[in-house]
Design goal:
Blueprint (H helix, E strand, L loop, with lengths): L2 H12 L9 E4 L6 E5 L4 H9 L4 E4 L5 H11 L2 H7 L5 H19 L8 H7 L3 E3 L2 H21 L5 H8 L3 H5 L5 E4 L9 E3 L8 H10 L4 E4 L4 H9 L5 E4 L2 H18 L3 E5 L5
Parallel strand pairs: 2-3, 2-9, 3-4, 6-7, 7-8
Antiparallel strand pairs: 1-4, 5-8
Helix pairs in contact: 1-7, 2-6, 3-5, 4-5, 5-10, 7-12, 10-11
The protein binds fe (ii) ion (2 copies).
The site of one fe (ii) ion has 3 residues, from α12.
């Protein structure tokens, strides 16, 4: 297998016709039989892959280059489509997104985007990252899981949903657990939305837009401290569950890696992937 095929399998599994901008092949390679896969890969990870004789190393989060600088702000536009899917107007969706997208875009200017990817080039080790396709697999998993949970528990409370989420394999094994950041555990789940696979979590402004549009329970992988305080202070009505970053990313990653293993690739999981 080559690096392009590793990428294409993820695109096919997640229904992407084209590679999203936050996923990239930094050093291409052929004849790949053994890969090392981590949520985050730094220079030490690349050295490790070389030392342990892996044929390629794959990261989930963009480790640098165009994927990080241009890719993340670009895939964040997916928040607009997600918000529109629950009836939020394009104008309001764009306004809500701009708060967090502006912050992320400005941060890009600070980063040394070459720190990790330049090391892979010097080591000549095949290196790529697959971000949004894998997150789209995670979102679909959560959507299907919660749909089926609610179909057999019509009047489920938020606490029941959290209990059920804890039974997902990666979450049960993970150190961080789903938690209710905003809202009332005793309230019904009601209308839910899984806001995952748009680069990064939407923060306070996007959460508010969902609640205003009638979503009762919103799921994020994670919520920053500043956004948490903002929502707390404004006494927003709605439930915001954080599912936990590493366990949630691991769900989509494992579905993808299981497919590679089926095709005969040896996979070593590390750096945040819950096996
Ligand atoms: Fe992710
Ligand atoms: Fe992530």
């Amino acid at each position: 297998m080559n690096t392009e095929e590793l990428m294409q399998i993820a695109l096919d599994m997640s229904g992407f016709k084209e590679k999203p901008a936050d996923s990239q092949i930094f050093v291409r390679g052929d004849d790949i039989k053994r890969i090392l896969f981590g949520v985050d890969v730094n220079a030490a990870g690349l050295m490790l892959a070389k030392q342990l004789n892996f044929d390629a190393i794959v990261a989930h989060h963009p480790p640098g280059s165009e994927a990080q600088i241009y890719g993340m702000p670009k895939v964040m536009l997916r928040h607009i489509d997600q918000m529109k899917s629950v009836g939020i107007s394009e104008k309001n969706a764009k306004k809500a997104l701009e708060v967090i997208r502006g912050k992320i875009s400005r941060q890009r200017n600070v980063i040394n985007y070459d720190r990790v990817t330049s090391v892979a080039k010097l080591l000549e080790i095949p290196f790529l990252n697959i971000h949004t396709p894998v997150d789209a697999i995670t979102k679909k998993y959560f959507d299907d899981y919660i749909d089926s949970f609610l179909s057999s528990n019509k009047s489920a409370k938020v606490s029941d949903l959290i209990k059920s989420l804890n039974e997902i394999d990666e979450i049960s094994k993970g150190l961080t657990k789903p938690a209710l950041r905003i809202g009332d555990e005793e309230s019904p789940v009601g209308k839910f939305f899984v806001a995952i696979s748009a680069g990064t979590s939407g923060g306070a402004a996007i959460a508010k837009a969902y609640f205003k549009a009638g979503i009762n329970t919103l799921l994020y992988m994670h919520l920053g401290e500043g956004d948490y305080k903002k929502l707390k202070k404004e006494k927003i009505k709605g439930n915001l569950i954080v599912t936990g970053h590493m366990p949630s990313d691991s769900i989509g990653i494992n579905i993808y890696l299981n497919e590679l293993e089926k095709r005969g690739i040896f996979v070593q999981r590390f750096s945040g992937v819950i096996a």
